[in-house]
Amino acid sequence: MNIAIVDDDKSELFAAKTYICEFISQNYPELFAELNVQTFSNPNEFFSVFKPNFFQIIILDIVMPEINGLQTAQIIRARGDDDANILFLTNNPDFVLNAYRVFAVGYFLKPLSDNQNEFADTFAHIFPKLCSKPPELTLIADGYEIFIRFRNILYLDIDYRHRLCVYLADGKKIITANNYSEISQILFTDNRFLECYHRIIVNMDYIKSMESDDFILMDGTSIPISQRKKKAVKVNFIRYFAHK
Predict the structure, then answer these.
(1) Which of 11, 50, 142, 175 is the most buried (most CB within 10 A)?
(2) Are 43 and 6 in contact (CB under 8 A)?
(3) Reported pTM
(4) Predicted confidence (pLDDT) per residue in 174-230, tens digit
(5) 9-25 tens-digit pLDDT
(6) pLDDT tens digits, residue range 134-183?
(7) Closest to 174 (Cα-Cα) out of 149, 194, 193, 191
């Protein structure tokens, strides 16, 4: 397992590496022999060795000069690495919502020396997920099977011809022969998906803002919120981000 830690504070960099190595050696000894933890004092140093899909976990300090952690995460995603699990180091939880816009899986509070128990609890909560295969959806389109990772799904709906349409984060649209009931049952096993309107399911990771009657997605798409279940939809949305 390859892990990268980027922080301009050497003491925090050393602490993060130490705690991670201790956690994995104690809880996942079978992985420890192949553990490769690399530390970097700034994003430029990190990008000098970065290759898409090489690091399984990337831990970024949010506040860094020149290029901050959020910008670094955006560059990682822009360079084609959709699989790396990104976590943030921060002394201000207010940054957390923005962190999830780049599909971070969690954060650690600094200074780590004062938050060792929280660090261990957070890592214990997320590490099994980091080791598992990203969930996928199997769609039938034009007679072929297509495998779409949950994280790449923007939203889905039913068009005027009663066809199930799946819209992806890269702008693509897939018209599938699968039925809505079948696909919705699969997606609802993952709490990021929410039916906000009759036969419209949105991936909450892509929601930029919540308006009175709509969700506005990161690409500007407006998704309606059902009047009948508006209260429940909004409660589920707030609860999702509160517990990420």
Answers:
(1) 50
(2) yes
(3) 0.61
(4) 999 999 999 999 999 999 999 999 999 999 999 999 999 999 999 999 999 999 999
(5) 999 999 999 999 999 99
(6) 789 999 999 999 999 998 999 999 999 999 999 999 899 999 999 999 99
(7) 149
Q: Whose structure tokens read 């997606």?
A: 187
Residue in this structure with the two tokens 């990337």, named with its chain if needed: 58
User: Parallel, antiparallel, or unpaired: how do β-strands 200-203 and 207-210 relate?
Assistant: unpaired
DSSP structure string for 167-220: EETTS-EEEESS-HHHHHHHHTTSTTEEEEETTEEEEGGGEEEE-SSEEEETTS
Cβ distance 164 to 183 under 8 Å?
yes
The Cα–Cα gap between 228 and 231 comes to 8
Q: Cα–Cα distance between 144 and 128 in angstroms, integer?
A: 32
Contacts of residue 98, defined as CB under 8 A and 6 or more positions apart, other chains included, come to: 70
Place of tokens 């005027």: 160
Question: And the tokens for 106?
Answer: 């969690």
